[in-house]
Amino acid sequence: xxxxxxxxxxxxxxxxxxxxxxxxxxxxxxxxxxxxxxxxxxxxxxxxxxxxxxxxxxxxxxxxxxxxxxxxxxxxxxxxxxxxxxxxxxxxxxxxxxxxxxxxxxxxxxxxxxxxxxxxxxxxxxxxxxxxxxxxxxxxxxxxxxxxxxxxxxxxxxxxxxxxxxxxxxxxxxxxxxxxxxxxxxxxxxxxxxxxxxxxxxxxxxxxxxxxxxxxxxxxxxxxxxxxxxxxxxxxxxxxxxxxxxxxxx
Length: 250
Known about the structure:
mainly alpha
């Protein structure tokens, strides 16, 4: 999926799981947490940024240009360590790694006399994630990305919801949404990386299902077709509409 579509899928997943969204008599959200409007918005933006994290393996991806020069250095290191695009960061190991980073950040709290409990590591991580989400809006210049990311990251560090696991949940939802989204395209993902179990030739010759398990070990349910396809754009449009409604209602 394209970067902007990953971001909106993360925001949509966050809102669907965490907020009670009711339109008429139709319930569109689970309402797992009780948050005020600003916490709901901050969580949605963080989750949108986390939904771009697996693309840290691609030095020319949207996130590589989000917060220069930090983001470009970050993506080159991750890309080198994970074996290139759609390998390590798009696997179960990659998902666990990003969630572990969020857990470490979420676990560091500092008690202050003036501000109470603050979460400095979560704030720094959020600055990076929020810059990812903001950069998916192509017209955003780097300076404005910095300003928005710093402001929102500060809010995250100083104004956490009562359930302080929300940051960990936002990162987990976003990363998982990214991998699932890529598995809906033809390229697919190898969740078992670095283990590669390639499909036998007879399987690849099967009609319909032959493209679901590839010779490089990747698995896909390619209902969206190629990345950037019309089907993907239609899905992204629907998700964007949902996010708008959910934020207004929530």
